[in-house]
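Many introductory courses stop at the sequence. We go one step further.
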Amino acid sequence: MPQTLNMDLFFREEGKDNKEKVVIIHGLYGSSDNWLTVGKKLGLTHHVYMLDQRNHGRSPKSNEHSYELMKEDLANFFEKQNVDKATVVGHSMGGKTAMYFATEYPEKVNKLVVVDIAPKNYFQLEEKSQYYLHKNILESLIEIELTDFQSREEIADALRLKIDGEALIQFLLKNVYRDKETKQFACRVNASVIYDFLDEIISGVDYRWFEDRLPIFNYPVLFIKGEKSNYISETDIPKIKEIYPEANIENIPGAGHWLHAEQAQLFMDALKKFV
């Protein structure tokens, strides 16, 4: 599969008649579908774009997956849609994409919202590390396209053999669809390519990426973390403050990594107050 630079990303829109723009970028295994509820609510006051990043959802697939490419995909989207400036909201992998984009294109960013991710290297070779968790998930998703499953429940049972957590399994199943041509189940996540670039996804956009630009005051910054999530720890906050000295950090009680779904109203309250 040839490398695709500056690809045209699939996106959804809400609130087209509103002038102030918000661009929402999902995380790993996600898509614009996961942000429809947030988009509709924000769309009452803002023009909201919800994107599918490359190798996810209904956006094109590529044989490469890096933050450099995702950052330029986003810049290309801004240009194609004539978005001069917007508040950029990114969750998890999308949060790292958003931080990188905002650093490279500060003139295009009104405000930056980073959802449950820190500018750090998550690559830790331990049994329960981020790397092994995602490696296991991706191997499971690859298997979906290599096995002749007859039903979604069969796929769910296969995922349960490898992955802990029913909520995570149901989230991953949102990527499964039946191909109209082959009549077989397929996955919207380009799992084999993401598997090949997992090191980059886990380790990229860490503190050292910002060292020659410190401190950043170009735009207001909000970090929103889930109380039960370990993606932003107390030890990460000093580093965040070194990069963004004026950043606000909101903690959502009772929420894990998918806080916009787990504590939807509390998340919306924090987001709307800032945006």
